[in-house]
Amino acid sequence: MQAEIYDDRRCELGEGPLWHPRRKQLFWFDILGKRMLSRRGDVVQSWEFDRYVSAASWADHDVLVLATETDICQLDLTTDQMTRIAPLDADSPNTRSNDARADPYGGFWIGTMGKSAELNHGAIHRYYRGEIRKLIAPLTIPNAISFAPDGSVAYYADTAVGKVWRQPLDRHGWPKGSADVFIDHGPDGGPDGAVVDGQGMLWNAHWGHFKVSVYDQAGNLMRDLRLPARQPSCPAFGGPGLNRLFVTTAREHLGDDASDHDGVTYAFDTDVRGQEEHQVIL
């Protein structure tokens, strides 16, 4: 599998790719640039915000659900109107949203973290049918939020400590019992965003390591997909057959060492089918 450039607009901190299954359109974010980008064929778009926005899911054909530094919002793509759904760490001015993904039950899991990645300032929250609840804390850089196809487990990581956990879920999608360490990379491993394919394999971007790694359901490494960008941040499956893997990357902290490869969005044609991204129930 060879990486190709899907979109050459450079992001300081590319994150949160979402393939909208109804619109057949990819959305992603430049968190530090306070913007959302999109591409459908040759049509490119971007939206500017007044605060950090990091990830999205979808509520219907024309409405996205956004995770921002202060709240969860819905964005009407036909009018560009944003409406607050619920506050998110609104009383913590030094935190922002990070990785997020909808679960198979219609909930929306969102990681928050310190704006300077302060130790243990982060957490994972879940919005579900009008309620937002803090699920997991403390964390430093929450990432890799993703779900098994049957909805039995959630995965999440703390990039700062290099671990990915597997959390059993109950029949409503709430954590049930304790999480187990799924993969332990050590503090230099850099597990960032992740997605689970239709067979239950975890595809995990490795910040600082030029790769996305694929793990089976027992946590065994199956293969690595190499990228020319040093800081892959998050993968997402999309395309007509859900077999294209889109990967965001970042230029953050690279300074003069950044190359033209860093910060752009890549795509791989894979031999597997991903899961359709789940709908958030508002």
Summarize the amount of helix as a percent range.
Answer: under 10%
How many helices does DSSP assign? 0
What is the N-to-C order of secondary-structure elements (H for helix, E for strand)?
A: EEEEEEEEEEEEEEEEEEEEEEEE
What's the total number of strands? Answer: 24
**Unreliable stretches:** none
Shape descriptor reads globular
Summarize the structure.
The chain has 282 residues and is mainly β.
Description:
- By secondary structure, the protein is mainly beta.
- The protein has strands spanning 4-7, 14-20, 25-30, 35-40, 43-48, 53-60, 63-68, 71-76, 81-87, 95-102, 108-114, 122-128, 131-139, 142-147, 153-158, 163-168, 180-184, 191-196, 202-206, 211-215, 221-226, 232-238, 244-249, 265-269.
- It is built from no helices and 24 strands.
- The strands form 6 sheets. It has a 4-stranded antiparallel β-sheet, with no helix packed on it. It has a 4-stranded antiparallel β-sheet with strand order 2-3-4-5, with no helix packed on it.
Question: Mind sketching the topology for me?
Answer:
Elements: E1 4-7, E2 14-20, E3 25-30, E4 35-40, E5 43-48, E6 53-60, E7 63-68, E8 71-76, E9 81-87, E10 95-102, E11 108-114, E12 122-128, E13 131-139, E14 142-147, E15 153-158, E16 163-168, E17 180-184, E18 191-196, E19 202-206, E20 211-215, E21 221-226, E22 232-238, E23 244-249, E24 265-269
Antiparallel strand pairs: 1-24, 2-3, 3-4, 4-5, 6-7, 7-8, 8-9, 10-11, 11-12, 12-13, 14-15, 15-16, 16-17, 18-19, 19-20, 20-21, 22-23, 23-24
